[in-house]
Design brief:
118 residues; mainly beta; Thrombin, subunit H; two-stranded antiparallel ribbon; globular
């Protein structure tokens, strides 16, 4: 799949490479890298699915989700975040890749994005 002609540009925010280690041996990430990806499709996900809304300690927790359709070949990792319309979302799991069994052409990279509030 090529970039969608009327798609929007999203930004992948990738954690920087380890810039050192703390006193416990855990890596300290360097500055984040921002990668613009033009020609993406973004669609809302059902927020009422299992676990979509719940009440924890008298506070409502709302999980807001989107589905991202990025051009074929987009490098999207589970540790990335994605900025859509100025709002930062986390990648929920591994992005999927589709190849047509009929033509062999590559389809979009599909990823679930979520933002938790509350």
């Amino acid at each position: 799949m090529r970039a969608l002609p009327h798609g929007e540009t999203v930004t992948i925010v990738r954690p920087g490479a380890a810039a050192g280690y703390d006193e416990y041996g855990a890596g300290i990430p360097g500055p984040s890298e921002e990668i613009p990806v033009p020609g993406c499709g973004v669609a809302p996900r059902d927020g009422n699915a299992a676990g979509g809304n719940e009440q924890t300690q008298a506070r409502d927790t709302v999980i807001i989700g989107l589905t991202l359709y990025a051009p074929a070949g987009t490098d999207l990792r589970p540790t990335d975040k994605v900025r859509v319309a100025g709002i930062l979302y986390e990648v929920d799991g591994q992005a999927g890749v589709f190849r047509s069994p009929f033509t062999g052409s590559s389809g979009p990279v599909v990823a679930a994005l979520e933002r938790v509030t509350g």
